[in-house]
Design goal:
256 residues, alpha+beta, Ribosomal Protein S5, domain 2, 2 domains, 6-stranded mixed β-sheet, 3-stranded antiparallel β-sheet, 34% helix, 27% strand, binds 4-diphosphocytidyl-2-C-methyl-D-erythritol, binds adenosine-5'-triphosphate
Length: 256
């Protein structure tokens, strides 16, 4: 009873607006094949829901626990409660936190997919994605588990994009970027300047072609400029000609 929870990068990320306190976006998400956490369900009597391997993150704020609560509420069954009185969740973390790689979201999505199977919940993937979106905006992409996808809305509209994943090299400086702060900075300084026509048709390009064609990391990812304002020290750590993922702080490029 084991599952891998892969990291993602955002090949491009353009903010399209703001409503209900959240930003809407258009982004190409790509799974990172060789960077993943693993989640294992291990038989053991547990007095409370038990997660091992997530360092000092309190259980209550762990995305895996949030996913459990949402599944529990949705199914309303004693099956899940009973299962987790007799199994613990062991996480092997490899994806750095606050890095723009979606680690916490990927863990929660992998947990939902695994529990759906192991506990024979038979919940359709669309419903799992909707339940997942209540944990975080990145969850639907990880629930569908496509290698590459165009993602829009707040993150809940996920459309598979037919292409192979790229071999990626990642660099995560030791600067944790708080997603909420980066979005807040974007709203304050940059939201008024968005020009929707500047990225018309980007979603149709293969990721490799788009990275070559646009080449500028600031143009490709709207949150990069916001992250540079919120975390000015990022500038010194940015390697020349690398791209920026999500709300940071990871830079990536295609392996040569
Ligand atoms: C930056 C991305 O990772 C790109 O893939 C996502 O858009 C963010 O996804 P996430 O980490 O799952 O974000 P969440 O945990 O849902 O949201 C954290 C905070 O970021 C802001 N937020 C998030 C997503 C979004 N579309 N608009 C926002 O303004 C909100 O203030 C929210 O409270
Ligand atoms: N299972 C988990 N794994 C990692 N972080 C978690 C987890 N559950 C809760 N968190 C909390 O979520 C915060 C953000 O972690 P995460 O690794 O998901 O962020 P991220 O790199 O900002 O992702 P994003 O791509 O969404 O920007 C961390 O500071 C951590 O305290």
């Amino acid at each position: 009873m084991r599952i891998t929870a892969h990291a993602k990068v955002n090949i491009f990320l353009k903010i399209t607006g703001h409503k209900e306190g959240y930003h809407t976006l258009l982004s190409r998400f790509m799974r990172v094949d060789d960077l993943y956490d693993t989640l294992t369900l291990i038989p053991e009597k547990c007095e409370t829901f038990t997660i091992e391997g997530c360092g000092d993150i309190p259980t209550d704020s762990n995305t895996i626990y949030k996913a459990f609560q949402i599944l529990q509420e949705y199914t309303g069954s004693k099956k899940l409660k009973h299962f987790f009185e007799n199994h613990k969740v062991v996480v092997e973390k490899h994806i750095p936190s606050q890095a723009g790689l979606g680690g916490g979201s990927s863990d929660a999505a992998a947990f939902i997919r695994l529990v759906n199977e192991v506990c024979s919940l038979d919940i359709p993937v669309e419903t799992l994605a909707e339940l997942g979106s209540r944990v975080g905006a990145d969850l639907p992409f990880f629930i569908y588990n496509y290698p590459s996808a165009n993602v829009s809305g707040f993150g809940e509209l996920v459309e598979a994009f037919e292409e192979e994943t790229l071999p990626l090299e990642l660099f995560t400086p030791d600067i944790g970027c708080d997603t909420a702060l980066v979005y807040k900075t974007f709203k304050q300084h940059l939201l008024n300047d968005i020009t929707l026509c500047s990225f018309t048709g980007w979603e149709k390009y293969r990721s490799k072609d788009l990275l070559e064609l646009i080449a500028d990391p600031v143009m490709l990812n709207d949150l990069y400029a916001a992250a540079l304002i919120a975390y000015p020290e990022l500038k010194k750590r940015a390697p020349e000609s690398w791209f920026f993922s999500g709300s940071g702080s990871t830079f990536f490029r295609i392996k040569t």
